[in-house]
Every structure is written in structure tokens, then in C-alpha cells.
Amino acid sequence: MPEKGLSWPSSQPWSLSPRSGPLLQWRVGVLTALVIVGMVVIWSVDARTMQSFVQATRSRQAYLVTKVSALTNLAQNHENGEFSSFHIAANQTKNQTKVTQFKTHFDSHDPVNLSRSESLSEPNSTGVSVKLDINQTQPVVPANLSWVSAGLEPNVTKNLLARWLAPGGEPCRASKTVEIAIPDLDGRDLIELPAGEIYEFGFRALSDDKKPRCLGGDYFETDLSGDSWKSRPVVKDFGNGSYSVSLQIHPDFVGLYNLTIILLFRHFEGLKLSPHRFVYDRELRKIPIRFTKGSAKLPELHTCKESDFGRDIWTGRWTRHAKNDACEISDDGRYRCLAPNFPCQSPWCNGSLGLLESNGWVYSAHCSFRLFSADAAWNCLKDRWIFFWGDSNHVDSIRNILNFILDRPDIPAVPRRFDMNFTNPKDPSQTVRITNIFNGHWNETQNYQGLNSLQNEGFRNLIKKYFSEDTVPDTIVMNSGLHDGVKWSNIRSFIKGASYAASFWVEVMESIRQRGLAVPRVIYRTTIATGGYARALAFNPSKMEAFNWVLLDKLKEAGILSGVIDNFDMTFPWHYDNRCNDGVHYGRIPAKMKWRDGMIGHHYFVDLMLDHILLSALCASYQGSASR
Ligand SMILES: *[C@@H]1O[C@H](CO)[C@@H](O)[C@H](O)[C@H]1NC(C)=O
Ligand SMILES: *[C@@H]1O[C@H](CO)[C@@H](O)[C@H](O)[C@H]1NC(C)=O
Ligand SMILES: *[C@@H]1O[C@H](CO)[C@@H](O)[C@H](O)[C@H]1NC(C)=O
Ligand SMILES: *[C@@H]1O[C@H](CO)[C@@H](O)[C@H](O)[C@H]1NC(C)=O
Ligand SMILES: *[C@@H]1O[C@H](CO)[C@@H](O)[C@H](O)[C@H]1NC(C)=O
Ligand SMILES: *[C@@H]1O[C@H](CO)[C@@H](O)[C@H](O)[C@H]1NC(C)=O
Ligand SMILES: *[C@@H]1O[C@H](CO)[C@@H](O)[C@H](O)[C@H]1NC(C)=O
Ligand SMILES: *[C@@H]1O[C@H](CO)[C@@H](O)[C@H](O)[C@H]1NC(C)=O
Ligand SMILES: *[C@@H]1O[C@H](CO)[C@@H](O)[C@H](O)[C@H]1NC(C)=O
Ligand SMILES: *[C@@H]1O[C@H](CO)[C@@H](O)[C@H](O)[C@H]1NC(C)=O
Ligand SMILES: CC(=O)N[C@H]1CO[C@H](CO)[C@@H](O)[C@@H]1O
After folding, report:
1. Which domain of life is it from (predicted)?
2. Where are the domains of the chain?
3. Is the beta carbon of 429 within 6 A of some atom in ligand 9?
4. Residue 208, Cβ neighbours under 10 Å: how many?
5. Which residue minimizes the CA distance to atom 1 of ligand 9?
6. pLDDT digits (tens, 9 = 90+) for 496-541
7. pTM for this entry
């Protein structure tokens, strides 16, 4: 276990290095389940123009099909009906033959039937029918768009294991991916897409002899970034060498973007115990895309309610609503770039954006978050007991909640293990009890056991003690992953560890229920996407995402989960380097010092966003003592 030697910023007992695990994007097709987007590209050539039809299929529960057509010449500005055109490159002197061949090859078992596709008209279950009109003179029924989404695949653990175990053999299975081909994007100068729609582009993994691969498992990091937007486009892995990436930009954020695709690991190699020996980490594409104004509308985000935390995989984005170019780090390590009361722009957040100290950035998902004032946070937390169980990122989050949100800058650190009551300095009648139990190891000064720490009886008893009194915590916030990345030799052994952890918590809950007490709400907060140098290590994003899926699957199966906060999705846009993380933490204490990469970084705003999301989850329709 070479990574064990990795020195995490070691520490006083509490500033210990926690690791958080990001939900790696497994492209393994696990995301396939709830990702609802379809795309068909049809090439046809008529006398004058070549048209390409991208059919973006979106849905709420139904599939609405809209057609977007790409005309050969950008000059032709056909704004017809409700949809503006999808201009693929200015002038397609593209070699048609090649593209068509590729498409055919792409679906080798099911060749594209152009004539059939052209008459595509999808029935819908919502009563809206959108007709594909090829010649663009027919009005297209305006349809309400939906946000791109994803979800935990049913049987994710089983399917993951099966894909991981899939035998090689034939060359197309045994070969290694070195390149990709994205027929609809490759070789174009400028791609213009009307904002709002979801565009799903298929791509194919190629081996070094340029042959398509026929086995999945490659781990692609995807990024769609512009001046005021950062997101991680959803990647689907079809398990046969075909993948797709889905792009969507809200119409308020038109402009120039880069779609970046990095191949980090090939064929599940990120899951290995010593993945750094296998890391590939090549940027395969950086594709400029201009998102243009369209007439399509996306449903407005609302402030997150309790039910919104039922979503297990998030597909959010960071948006920027202000920028102070002159902003510099202060001597105390803070980035006070905007006035503290600088307001959120609705609907992207609710409260004071200035409080985040992010120089204008804020994260939103399928709903948007409240940024809490101290009063609001205290009013929600008073008289409550929150139990944290997780790695050192929890230690950071708790300290940041106290320092930045609860008006307790006097608390410089909290330990890996503690049980304390904290009082509102402005209102001594308000207190909150917070318990934190580090789960990186059963011994609080050690590391790299993760969920295996539950094998220690003393550790199990320590946890049970907090749930055996007359009052028990009202909410448990859990995470795990970083230490597990180093502990478990393979995905199969982690699955066992995760199953055991789920059964342990079921037992704890059962004992509470038997005593007639309200069972705590359990919120699973997924592990971070590790950053910069850590992307190659034992807790790399690919492994952490898989581990997040497995543990979520086990906790859901056990029936004890009340909500999920997808911190993996939230941290992903910031994980490519060490500007906002030290590799394994996004919430270190503010400090004006050089960061891992030799430059002064921003140590804490990503975690501070998480902290407001935690409060959103803790406070969403919390009904007092008996929340369940
Ligand atoms: C497309 O490109 C060709 C070759 O570059 C050029 O001759 C033609 O005028 C262009 N068409 C348009 C509409 O720009
Ligand atoms: C298409 O590609 C073929 C082979 O690469 C080439 O011979 C042909 O001239 C190209 N056609 C156009 C219009 O560029
Ligand atoms: C790969 O799988 C997807 C989904 O099952 C399918 O649509 C596609 O045709 C397959 N591609 C190949 C080359 O088999
Ligand atoms: C393509 O679709 C058309 C119309 O559905 C059908 O008549 C034709 O046989 C199909 N061709 C192939 C090759 O499947
Ligand atoms: C789109 O949404 C608006 C507002 O929610 C609604 O009034 C309208 O009926 C919707 N249209 C369709 C086609 O669903
Ligand atoms: C999940 O696995 C179970 C048991 O193997 C099976 O019955 C069920 O159909 C699977 N569900 C899905 C959606 O694949
Ligand atoms: C896209 O990437 C290029 C090269 O890294 C960079 O110069 C450019 O600013 C990026 N564009 C956007 C919109 O971020
Ligand atoms: C912001 O949050 C407050 C407190 O929950 C709520 O009263 C208000 O309606 C929200 N504002 C918006 C625009 O959602
Ligand atoms: C915190 O307060 C609760 C009751 O409010 C009390 O039972 C508990 O012992 C206190 N814990 C500590 C560490 O003081
Ligand atoms: C925890 O580990 C330290 C060494 O890292 C050791 O000194 C200490 O005795 C251990 N504590 C327990 C309770 O095992
Ligand atoms: C085009 C189309 O099929 N539209 C259908 C959408 O769904 C409604 C209700 O199911 C049907 O009445 C429409 O015909």
C-alpha cells in the first residue's frame, strides 16, 4: 500500500487530515439509470445544405423530443418557431462520408436507419408531442425543458461488480483506451448550441491502433466551464466502449465555454489499491462551445425542501454572480471580496452571497440553497443534537460552521472526537449539541481504516453509547471514503465493509426504535472529489465515486437513509488542481500560506458552501424533536 506513506498534513489530534471521497464518476454505466437524455444525429445531404439534426430528448417523466437542426451555413439565421438553430460549425465542408461511417460503426449492431430516423416523432407521456420537422418550416411545439439529471442505478453494486469482473479476451476488450472519437464534435471550428437544451453527444473509446474498444470502465473527467459557470457534464458508460456526455447551460449564462474531457484512468484501474502506477491523466479534448440565446426555458430552481435531499446523485453547477478582480487574501487568510451583505441573485441562492467569501461563486443543484445568517442558523439548530460520523473533512466543516456561520470565531479547532454543547454568543439561551466521531480509524490518532474501523468492538461501543441514553441525536451526518480508499484492496472487499457498516447502523437504529424514541434522520454526505496530485492516488475520484455509490446503495437498501448531500458533485469543478483544496480537504482553516502547489490558494469556500447545504438539510422542514 504505497499510498500509506503519503503524508497527509499531519497534525494535532484534530487538524487531522480527513479525507473525503468524491463520488467518482464512474462511467461504468452506472449513471445510466436516471440520466434521461437521448440524442440521435442524423446526417443527410440535400442539394444545398447539409443538415444535421440533433434530437435532444429531455424529460420530466416523459420524453419530450425537440429537434434542433444544424444548418451548414451559420449565416442562415433561421429562428423558427420556438427553437433557434443548432449551428454546428460555421461551414461544414465536413467529410460526410466519414462521419456517417463512424455513426454506423458506432452502432455496429444496429446501423442507423436514416429513413426511419427522419420520421421520428416521439409520443410523449405528458401530452406534449413535438414533431421533428426536417425542413424547419413547421413550427416546433415549444416544450418546457428539464434539467439534466442522473441517479443511482438500481442494483448499482451488483452491476459495478459485474462490469469490473467482465473478462477481456478479444483485442477490443483487452486493449487500452488512448483516444476517443466524438463524431458530432470532432473537427469543427466553432460549435454553437442554443442554451437550455440538454445535448447528449456519444463518443467512442479507441485503442492505440485507432480501433474502437468494446469494453467500458474508463474514467473520464469532464468539465464545462465559462466565465460564470462550472459544471461536470454527466458521462454515461454503456459498458461496450461507447460513452456519452450531456451538456446543458442555463439560458441566463450564454457565452463561450470549454468542454474539457480528461481520461484519468482506463478500465477501472482507479479502483486498484495502488492506482498511481496506472493513472493516465491525459486531456483528450478541450472544445470551445458557444452557448447562444434560445427561446427555451428551464424550470426555475426553488429553494431546497426536505424532499429535495432524497435525490442521491446531483448534477449541479457553480454560477458566478459577482467578481472583484482586485480582491486579495487578507493576512488572516480570508477572501473578503464582496460586502458581507452582498445579496444572492434569485433563484441561484437565497441570502447573502458575500458570506461565502467565494468572490461571487455559488453552487446550486436541482434546487438552490439558503445561505444562512447566524440568527437563522441558531434558530434552526437550537436545542438540537447533531451527530457527525466521518473523516477529517467533517472536522473542518464543523469548525467552519462554528466560525463562519454560528458566530463562534473563538473556536480555532475541534477535535476528531468530541461531544460538546455550543452556545449562541448573542443569546445564551440557544445551545446546540454537536458530537463528532472520526471514522478513519478506531484509534482517533490513526488513519486508513475507514469503515473497517467498525471491526473494533471498542469503537462500536463508543458509537452506541451516544444512542443508548434517554435522548439521542436528532440527526446523523455521515461520510466515508478517503480512508477506505487506502484500506480496501478491491471493490469487492469494500462492498463487504459497506454492508457491515449498514448493518451496524441498522442495529443502532433498531435499538432506538425499541426504546420508543424518535429515530434520527440520517444524511449521507458523499465524499469529495480529491484534487490535483490526489487524483492519482488511492482515494482518487474514480474510486471515491464508486465507493460513494456502493455505500449509498447499502444504506438505502438498509432503509435508514433520510437524505443525501452530493459533495462529490459539488467539489468536482474545483478538483483539477490544488487551488481550492490540499488534495483531500476543501475546508482547511483560512491561512495566508502557500498551498500544495506552491501558490497561495483559497482554502475554505468550497467547504463553506457545503456547510450551508448541510444547514439547509438540517433545517429543511425540521419539525422539532420528533422529526420522524
Ligand atoms: C463553406 O466553405 C467553403 C469552402 O471553404 C466555401 O467555399 C463556402 O463559401 C462556404 N460556405 C459558406 C456558406 O460559408
Ligand atoms: C471526404 O473525404 C474523402 C476521403 O477522405 C475525400 O476523398 C473527399 O474529397 C472528402 N470530401 C469532401 C467534400 O471533403
Ligand atoms: C453500446 O451500448 C449501447 C447501449 O446499450 C448501444 O446503444 C450501442 O449501440 C452499443 N454500441 C456498440 C458499438 O455496441
Ligand atoms: C429503415 O426504415 C424504413 C422505414 O421504417 C424501413 O422501411 C427500412 O426497411 C429500414 N431499413 C433498414 C435497413 O432497416
Ligand atoms: C411550460 O411551463 C409553463 C409554466 O410552468 C406552463 O404554463 C406551460 O403550460 C408549460 N408548457 C408546456 C408545454 O408544458
Ligand atoms: C436488481 O436485482 C434484482 C435481484 O437480482 C432483480 O430482481 C431486479 O430486477 C434488479 N433490478 C434492476 C432494475 O435491474
Ligand atoms: C478555454 O480554454 C482556453 C485554453 O485553455 C482558454 O484560453 C480559454 O480562456 C478558455 N475559455 C473559456 C471560456 O474558459
Ligand atoms: C429565502 O428564504 C427565506 C427564508 O426561508 C424565505 O422566506 C424567502 O421566501 C426566500 N426567498 C426566496 C426568493 O426564495
Ligand atoms: C450538553 O447538554 C446536554 C443537555 O442540554 C447535556 O445532557 C449534556 O451532558 C451536555 N454535554 C456536555 C458535553 O456538556
Ligand atoms: C492509538 O494509537 C497510538 C499510536 O498512534 C497509540 O499510542 C495509542 O495507544 C493508541 N490508542 C489506543 C486506544 O489504542
Ligand atoms: C405527439 C404525441 O404523441 N402526443 C401525445 C402526447 O401525449 C398525450 C397524452 O398522452 C397524447 O394525447 C398526445 O397525442
Report:
1. Eukaryota
2. 2-20+382-618, 38-145
3. no
4. 10
5. 421
6. 999 999 999 999 999 999 999 999 999 999 999 999 999 999 999 9
7. 0.76
